[in-house]
Design a protein that fits this description.
Elements lengths: L1 E2 L2 E7 L10 H9 L9 E6 L6 E7 L4 E2 L3 H13 L7 E6 L2 E10 L2 E10 L21 E5 L2 E9 L3 E6 L8 H9 L9 E9 L2 E8 L3 E3 L3 H13 L6 E6 L2 E7 L5 E6 L10 H11 L1
Parallel strand pairs: 2-3, 4-6, 11-12, 13-15
Antiparallel strand pairs: 1-2, 3-4, 4-5, 6-7, 7-8, 8-17, 9-10, 10-11, 12-13, 13-14, 15-16, 16-17
Helix pairs in contact: 1-5
Length: 285
């Protein structure tokens, strides 16, 4: 499945059990675009005691993500389209808390979804980022490869570092992205968003995702970028974020909650060869 080009291998974790100790290896193998299925992440649909379902997401490098905005829309479509849940309102447990999703459907299938992403976290201690825990990081210089880059940092349940560029299409994301992701200022690493402001209602974004590299889109990154752009007086509180894989509408409302609206699509359904899957499991043992 994919949301604005951010793609996922989705598994019904109720029927198909992957041992916890093998998840990292299976995630790496499944997401390998040359030797596996190919995806930005492996997503499991699991039961929850506090919500309708629980989402678990393994990045392509085998690490676990707290939350994924594009992924949770795909998750909701998977569950609704297969009649595992019949209400157009759904709650999903994530490592970043329980998220509420409103589904827009046609012909019994989800077309788009609006996700309550919760309140952004704006201080160092919550991002997390080294330094005074109660301070915000807004247009602060960060030394990268011997040069200073102004950054604004936001957490949407996972860390984001936003910087502004004049020409995002030609910016060396593959060079600067991993340097910021692994910068010692971020104890849990960080996602990195490169933003070109178009006008008060639109921004253009490329993203270097923690644990994945550059992807076509990032939902939490789009939310963080919209919030950062408001904090820097560059846009209003309702902004369209243009990503390489499509557009997302982000709203930062007066109650301090961020809402994200965007598409979710299923590309194909398949089965992994049993022998290959057993090999993945044994590699992770």
């Amino acid at each position: 499945m994919h949301g604005a080009g951010n793609d996922f291998v989705v598994v019904d974790g109720v029927r198909e059990v992957i041992p916890e100790e093998s998840l990292s290896t299976v995630g790496r193998q499944a997401c390998d675009r040359n030797f596996g299925i190919g995806a930005d992440g492996l997503m499991l649909v699991l039961p929850s005691r506090i919500a309708n379902f629980r989402m678990q997401l393994i990045n392509s490098d085998g690490s676990e993500a707290e939350m994924c905005g594009n992924g949770i829309r795909c998750f909701a479509k998977y569950v609704f389209d297969r009649k595992m849940h019949t209400d157009v309102v759904m709650t999903v447990e994530t490592l970043a808390g329980v998220k509420t999703i409103k589904l827009n459907t046609a012909g019994g299938k989800v077309q788009t979804a609006r996700v309550d992403m919760g309140e952004p976290k704006l201080v160092r201690g919550e991002i997390p980022m080294k330094g005074a825990a109660s301070e915000r990081v807004i247009s602060e210089p960060l030394k990268v490869l011997g040069k200073k880059i102004d950054i604004t940092c936001v957490s949407m349940g996972n860390p984001h570092c936003v910087t502004y560029v004049d020409d995002v299409d030609n910016y060396p994301v593959d060079k600067i992205g991993p340097e910021i992701e692994n910068h010692p200022s971020f104890p849990k690493r960080t996602n990195v968003e490169f933003i070109q402001v178009i006008n008060q209602q639109e921004i253009k974004m490329r993203v270097w995702e923690r644990g994945c590299g550059e992807t076509m889109a990032c939902g939490t990154g789009a939310c963080a970028s919209a919030v950062a752009s408001v904090l820097n007086d560059k846009v209003g509180r309702k902004v369209t974020v243009h990503l390489r894989g499509g557009d997302l509408l982000i709203e930062w409302l007066g109650d301090n909650k961020v809402f994200m609206t965007g598409p979710a699509e299923e590309v194909y359904e398949g089965k992994v060869n049993a022998a290959e899957f057993k090999k993945w499991l044994s590699d992770g043992a």
